[in-house]
Amino acid sequence: MRNAWIRHLEQVAGGDERIFLVVGDLGFSVVERFAAAYPGRFLNAGVAEQNMVSVAAGLAREGYFVFVYSIGNFVTLRCLEQIRNDVCLHNLPVCLVSVGGGFMYGALGPTHHLTEDIAAMRVMPGMRVYVPFCARSAEVVLEEVLGQCAPAYVRLGRQAVAVENVDGCGLVPVRKVEAGRAHTVVVSIGQLSADTVEFARREAADLFALCRIRPLPVEDLESVLGRYRRILVVEDHQLEGGAFGALAELSCGRWCLEPCCVKGFLLEGGREEELRRRFLRGEGPL
Amino acid sequence: MPAELTPDTEELAYRIRRFALEMVHRADSSHIGGALSVADILAVLYGRVLRVRPREPDWPERDRLVFSKGHACTALYAALALKGFFPLDELAEYGTTGTRLLGHVSHQVPGVEWSTGSLGHGLGLACGQALAALRRGASWRVFAVLSDGELDEGSTWEAVLFAAHHRLWNLTAIVDRNGQQALGDTENILRLEDICAKFRAFGWQALEVDGHAHQALLWALEAAVSDSAPTCIVARTVKGCGVDYMEDRLEWHYRAPKTPELLEAALRALARRYGRAYESPALGDDRVGG
After folding, report:
1. What is the CATH number of domain B8-273?
2. Measured between CA atoms, how close is A58 to chain B, in angstroms?
3. Nearest to B236 by CA among B188, B269, B196
């Protein structure tokens, strides 16, 4: 997903001289082509994330559309006040792009698990929040972000399951129960894994992917989710404040929502797939 | 040849101080000490250095001033109003409900680049603007006015590294070195000296001047574009400068000259310092909220 996104950014940057890419000394083997193609619009800000975001705001104030790329915690939590004051307060076109969402860096332990970013970003005034679920959806998100000229956050994950016919950032159908009408729906947030598809199959549930958490695609959600008796929200994010929280706020008790989210720190490492499988089963501290 | 100063910057500094005193009196607000310490820096910048167009605040070729010590906003608002960015009468609205003249600098005010107040943001913002100018070959300069207290912030030193690495020669940082921060002397809380040596060690050009001596400030600001490195001017100042009963007294970080008597005493002290006759308050006697 990350590679597809950066390739798409390269393509778009050829015709849009506003685009500027700032990285926090991360992106080995991913960002070099952009840097070579557009050296005047590329910057490695070093391991200094607070300054990185302030610099990005300064560049944006002068007319650039700035994409700031780093590992999740570093581009969200480490520089939270710079995001709030420098970017959002001034409503500047700065798009924060993270990799490593959820347990993508599972083996590295909790300092590199990213399970609080959506909550932190979606409370920022004016911030748009996206969690693409496949490579194509990441491209669609990029196009939507560029059309808005406003602060944005994009959490890029890994592509495990490609979804066809992604034409927007709303609620995208992935799997429908073949025989009869399902009473349960799974709403998957962020990268769509084979485990989530299997989870939906076990639950005899329809499966939708949701990638724009803020603003929520309210019309899509109202028309689709109201049809189900039970809505399972799968999200590799803490229970509080993430997409489950956003849906609960929208629902105001109208829908029967069940979270399949993270609860607390995971103090052991592991492969992402295994960690996701565990929280889908509701095991351990997750 | 260095520019010769005309008396107008002294007049500007006097009037910045007067209005700042009146504003904090009317609003019963804090931070007059830091406003008085930075007044001469702003007077020289707006009087002689900055290329700005008050009737066209977003003129693309303007010099950018990032006022990072947002708590000293009364001095900046006064300077901007005196330069004609907005009507002087509006200064009377400071501290009222609904005003755009917020208690920490607000970008809603014509001539203000950034809302600041949380310390340690301004130099990074200035770096971004300075880098944009260099990447585009623009000739405007960027000035960042910092407090000395915000040199405690790690983010400031991230920006110091950045500016030197990217050779932001069009960036000048001016540190209002009044020696005090919220709970006391900077050297007793988190030692900063030798500030110039630290900036030089990071790759900056650095010099120290008397922050109340206009000619010295002007020369320093002109010298700041002569090299390929960014420049830091450490401007030695006195917190509360111009009002004898406030000078170097920490309480004036917080207190306002709340009563008419205190305001009059301050304005009289200021007039004496400038060798002028006392002038009654220009914004009127009515205090915000009665």
Report:
1. 3.40.50.970
2. 4
3. B196
